[in-house]
Amino acid sequence: MQLQTQFEVSTTSEVDGTIVASSEISIENRTIRKLQIRLLPFLFILYVVAFVDRINIGFAALTMNKELAITSQQFGFAAGVFFFGYSLFEVPSNLLLHKIGARIWIARILITWGILAALTGFVHSVHRLYVLRFLLGLAEAGYFPGIVLYLSYWFRQREQARALALFMTALPVTSVLGAPMSGFILDHVHWLSLSSWRWLLILEGLPAVVFGILTYFVLPNRPAEAKFLTAEEKEWLHADLLREERKKLEQRHYSVLQTLLNRRVLCLGVIEFGILIGSYTFSFWGPQLIKSLSGQYSNTTVGLLVMIPYAVGTVVMIVVSRSSDRHLERQYHAGFPVLLGGIALLLIGRFHSPFVLIVLLSLVAIGAYGWCAPFFTLPCEFLTGPAAAAGVALINSIGNLGGFVGPYAVGVMSGWAGGIHRGIALVGIPLLFSGISLLLLPKNASANSSMRKNPSARNGGAV
Known about the structure:
- By secondary structure, the chain is mainly alpha-helical.
- The protein has a single domain, classed as MFS general substrate transporter like domains (Growth Hormone, Chain: A).
- Helix content is 78%, strand content 2%.
- It has helices at residues 2-10, 22-55, 57-67, 72-80, 82-88, 90-100, 102-119, 126-140, 143-152, 157-168, 170-188, 196-218, 231-251, 256-260, 263-291, 299-327, 331-348, 354-369, 372-377, 385-400, 402-417, 420-426, 428-440, 445-453; strands at 12-15, 18-21.
- The protein is globular, with a radius of gyration of 23 Å.
- Residues 1-20 and 445-463 have low confidence and may be disordered.
């Protein structure tokens, strides 16, 4: 037994020319797998709750618009004004998360947005709807970039795309599960003489409050606080993350101010802006687009049809992220799905067949979700600490303004174009520009140098 233990400890393997002890590989795989199992499912559920509250107004509109006499232009503004509040507080919120700690700050975000999301179900005029959507954006500001930053505290660069993808699959999965549920609520829930769209907003807002309280008790701030890791695993993780951070700092150390003025950061923000014009148009207007195909479709049927593109987007997001980590390549993995989604959006105005429309919306879903995980590893290739907090937040702050521009532009264009098909098709143009810009974005020398110095990165981590 003693001889066997000695043999296991002394066994080595060669990884891309680098000799690595099998005991170290064992610690690495065991630790990464623990992180994936313990952190990602909980963060996934939190993002499902967040995204439901952000986009369920698209389903509420199927009956809300008529009851409150909301025009297409007003609905587009109500859907998009969320992102004004969201973008205003994005950077300070992420800096506060880095300083105060993820456990307290994420819990605060969840509780405040859950309360405001539920209150949206009690509005009686479009102007009150504007106010609550704006406040909801303020409350949720910093949540997504905060999670991106939080994952960088736990996962190395080589595992970040997969970790982000497993977290961000919540985006399409939310609609896979939430679309039929929302349609069912609209058709069947009319309790206490309240309209079904009101119950939709109330019932889907309350889980955020519950999970906010739970977050405070179960989410550790940093690896040093993780009770699910052994002392040996904590030591290994701390050493590897510190080694990776030092390599970034050897190339260039960015202050918060330098990060906010960095051309690459600003360019990534503008690229995300174009992408989100298309993807939030897809989220907010998709149910109404499908409903317009036939007056015979019930809200439940619309929910089931909307589910199909999101299911496709979920699968593609996971496949793209795994390929991105395996090849240590980000830009092409993010750029090509965006291009495909832009082309599909441009074609939507030309077809009115339910089958063709679902196929095109599935391609749009590939563009709306396939890019996410590779894209958000790009700033973490050269930013650390407060600079990473500020950089990711600024990129997302600029990008999320597209969440206002896209839905509002479709609402305006639908008025003079005689329907939403052509309005939705036009937002494919900024998606195409963003896809091309991603493909042409200069490579980050710091990241490439770091990867050359650490060739074993290709085989690190658990799947």
